[in-house]
Amino acid sequence: MHNVRSSESRNGSKFRAVPFGLLALGLSSDVFAAAEIEASSVMLWTTLIILIVFAATAGSAVLNIAAIRQWDRNWGLVSGLPLVGLLVWSLLIFIAKFVDPETHALWTLEIFAWAMINMIYMVTAMTAKRMFAKRDEENSTTP
Q1: Dihedral sign from CA coordinates of 98, 101, 103, 108
Q2: 109: which of 5, 15, 57, 80 lies 20 to 30 Å off by Cα?
Q3: Cα 45 to Cα 33, 50, 101, 128, 129, distances in angstroms
């Protein structure tokens, strides 16, 4: 008799587990759907951040290119140095990511930092150029 009860309780627990299993299965499909939505949301944000970084980097690099084209040779070389740095750093990131995809996880931040530092560099270069031009103008007008 004891075996009959234990088998009944086991069968009863199996039948009670079925609704919980179905509930868990239903929740897991909801979890998977939520995970897919979250993954697509993360992908959207990642793409948006990459676009913003590239826009800021391009905008910053345009300052250097315009200065190279408009300034005389020496000041053009001064304004072109950050572009060489960007090229070298980008190649380093690209090669490192090719060798080990886990490296440079924050590469967008690295490139964005270059863009912001380049802005400060170019403002400093423009200010220095104006100061030297003003000094040269003052020295040439006074006999």
Answers
A1: positive
A2: 80
A3: 18, 9, 20, 39, 40
**Tens digit of each residue's pLDDT (9 = 90 or more) over 109-130:** 899 999 999 999 999 999 999 9
Residue 106 has φ and ψ, to the nearest 5°, of -105, 45
- Contact of 110 with 60, CB cutoff 8 Å: no
Sign of CA dihedral 135, 140, 141, 142: positive
Q: What is the pLDDT of residue 124?
A: 94
As for how many domains the chain has, the answer is: 1
- How far apart CA 93 and CA 27 sit, in angstroms, is 41
pTM over 0.70: no
Structure tokens at 106: 């924050």
Burial string for 42-53 (b: 16+ CB within 10 Å, else e) reads eeeeeeeeeeeb
Q: Which domain holds residue 9?
A: 2-141
